[in-house]
Each structure stands twice: as C-alpha cells, then as structure tokens.
Amino acid sequence: MDIIGTHWRSTLEQALDKWGIDAQLLMVSEEFGELLSALSKWRRGRIAPTKVAEEIADVYIMLSQIAIMIKCPQHTIDALIESKLKRLQNKL
Q1: CA-CA distance, 29 to 22, in Å (whole number)?
Q2: Interatomic CA distance for residues 43 and 32, integer angstroms
Q3: Can you list the residues of the chain whose pLDDT is less than 50?
Q4: Distance of alpha carbon 39 from alpha carbon 17, whole angstroms
Q5: Helix count (H) and strand count (E) of the chain?
Q6: What whole-number distance in Å separates Cα of residue 6 and Cα of residue 27?
Q7: Which of 24, 42, 58, 87 could serve as 31's disulfide partner, Cβ 3.0–4.6 Å?
C-alpha cells in the first residue's frame, strides 16, 4: 500500500539530507495544520475538494519522510494498515 511509491524514496531521502530531520519534522506539523485548516474550510463550503486533496498529498509525502526518518520498512507499515483495516471491517 505504498502510497508514494518506492521510486520517489531517493527524492525523499535527498530532502531529509538537504533540510535535516528537525526542519522536516517542523514541516510535518505545518502540513498537518494546513490539512486541518483545509478540512475546516471545506466543511463550511469555502474551498473546493481539490484544495483538500492537495493538502492530503502533502501529508502523504511527509508521512513517507517520517517512515524513512525512523527507519521503518514499508512492509511493516503495510501490515499495520492491513491489520487496522481488518479490525475496522470487523467493527462494521
């Protein structure tokens, strides 16, 4: 379920090398904040869904960088997502 794709991994690693972990962690909180703001505006009918989608894309990118930072293999994340989706499915 690799959302970003492994072919972009080197780009994400280059970003971490260029700006550093601390700056990228700060960017994580900024991107999540922008997504929350966009969702609030969308809910009130003030922005188009495409703007929310843009913020979702930014968050996906930052999540991928976090996985690289903590050296968590994609297959581990995929297995956890699968497990959590199965649990959700059972609740439904």
Answers
A1: 11
A2: 17
A3: none
A4: 31
A5: 3, 0
A6: 21
A7: 58
- Reduced to 3 states, what is the DSSP secondary structure of residue 28? helix
The Cβ-side half-sphere exposure at 60, using a 13 Å CA radius, reads 13
* Residue 13 tokens, joined: 């690693």
pLDDT tens column, 52-71? 999 999 999 999 999 999 99
**79 vs 92: CA distance, rounded Å:** 20
Q: CB neighbours (10 Å) of residue 86?
A: 10
CB atoms under 10 Å from CB of 90, counted, come to 7
- What sign results for the dihedral spanned by CA atoms 18, 23, 24, 27? negative
Contact status, residue 18 vs residue 70, Cβ threshold 8 Å:
no
**Half-sphere exposure at residue 1, Cβ-oriented, CA atoms within 13 angstroms:** 10
Task: Give the number of other CB atoms < 10 A from CB of residue 51.
Answer: 15
The structure's pTM equals 0.87
